[in-house]
Amino acid sequence: MKTNGVKLDERDLRIIEILQREGRLSKSELARRVNLSSTPCWERLRHLEDAGIIEGYEARVSLKAFGPLTQVVVTVELESHLPEEFARFEAAVQAHPEIYECDSLGGGIDYVMRVMARDLESYQAFMDRFLGSGLGIRRYFTYVVTKPVKHTPPPVTRIGGSG
Amino acid sequence: MKTNGVKLDERDLRIIEILQREGRLSKSELARRVNLSSTPCWERLRHLEDAGIIEGYEARVSLKAFGPLTQVVVTVELESHLPEEFARFEAAVQAHPEIYECDSLGGGIDYVMRVMARDLESYQAFMDRFLGSGLGIRRYFTYVVTKPVKHTPPPVTRIGGSG
DNA sequence: CCTGAAATCTATAGGTA
DNA sequence: TACCTATAGATTTCAGG
């Protein structure tokens, strides 16, 4: 598989797949799983990290354990599509920790975001403040997450590259 | 902070925050960061894991490194809202690795999903197959992700619980 | 890619407040 | 209960082949 000029073989892909699901696996156990001794496995992993292919590691926390929590998916359309207006909106997104995911989209919606709030009331209070801060939001729609159905790491090793 | 009967103090929350961003930090360095010696820090971490508060660890990979890749956000409405139909749809979601995130929503849309594909053509080919498999999808909308704006871990330690 | 070994980290035992 | 120090065993990292 080719990835922007860097070549990854089956072992590299296997290392990535394993760490996408077991990010804290020891390097020695990882080496065992890919049938290598620990040094070459370690060198491969270091390469994947240094090349930015593996960007970092995250603990996944149980949202239930922190309940009550309300997760909200929000779609946003801006009044204006000037680059300056996009930049202003995105800066505001960065500034608010309650908004923890946001992507720019093509196809009639400008952005989807995920917002974390204690409950619907505090979500609405947050959005009132957010909208009041003078971003040019034409309209937005609110969808409360009622149940997580599936959350897996992005299947890049199956889908991506030219392999 | 209270979390479903388990009490977490400031140090526990700090441990969680650190590992949400640096999931592979060594336990000894983690102990240093929270001003503890390694034993009590290790016990706290073990408790967080055993209690399911920390569910696991994931390597975060660069989607760019695997390019070309197309990420698509899809909203779905089903024909029928019978529990049986929901279950059938959700089982199909589980069965397709291309769909790597899916949440059930309230408010006019039944589901949002994220689909990973090589390009728009293979996305469309995938959706044609998916729709052809006889799930009762009334309609769906496709939004291509044009730019990731913000992706941080869910801010549970700031927002969640009663603290 | 391997072996081997020093530096570091992990997990546990035993003790103090 | 929550913390400490000490330490054996495991792991990580780096030579050298």
TrEMBL record, chains A, B:
User: Could you tell me which SMART domains the record lists for this protein?
Assistant: HTH_ASNC
Any keyword GTP-binding?
no
- Provide the alphabetized UniProt keywords: DNA-binding, Transcription, Transcription regulation
A molecular function annotated in GO for this UniProt entry is: sequence-specific DNA binding
Q: Which InterPro entries match?
A: ArsR-like_HTH (IPR011991), AsnC-type_HTH_dom (IPR000485), Dimeric_a/b-barrel (IPR011008), Tscrpt_reg_AsnC-like (IPR019888), Tscrpt_reg_AsnC/Lrp_C (IPR019887), Tscrpt_reg_HTH_AsnC-type_CS (IPR019885), WH-like_DNA-bd_sf (IPR036388), WH_DNA-bd_sf (IPR036390)
**Stored PROSITE patterns:** HTH_ASNC_1 (PS00519), HTH_ASNC_2 (PS50956)
Q: Which domain of life is it from?
A: Bacteria
Instruction: Give every HTH asnC-type domain span.
Output: 8-69
Question: Per the record, GO CC terms?
Answer: cytosol
One of the GO BP terms on file = regulation of DNA-templated transcription
SUPFAM superfamilies, from UniProt?
Answer: Dimeric alpha+beta barrel (SSF54909), Winged helix' DNA-binding domain (SSF46785)
Which CDD domains does the record associate with it? HTH_ARSR
Query: What is the protein name for this chain?
Result: Winged helix-turn-helix transcriptional regulator
Q: Which organism is it from?
A: Roseospira navarrensis
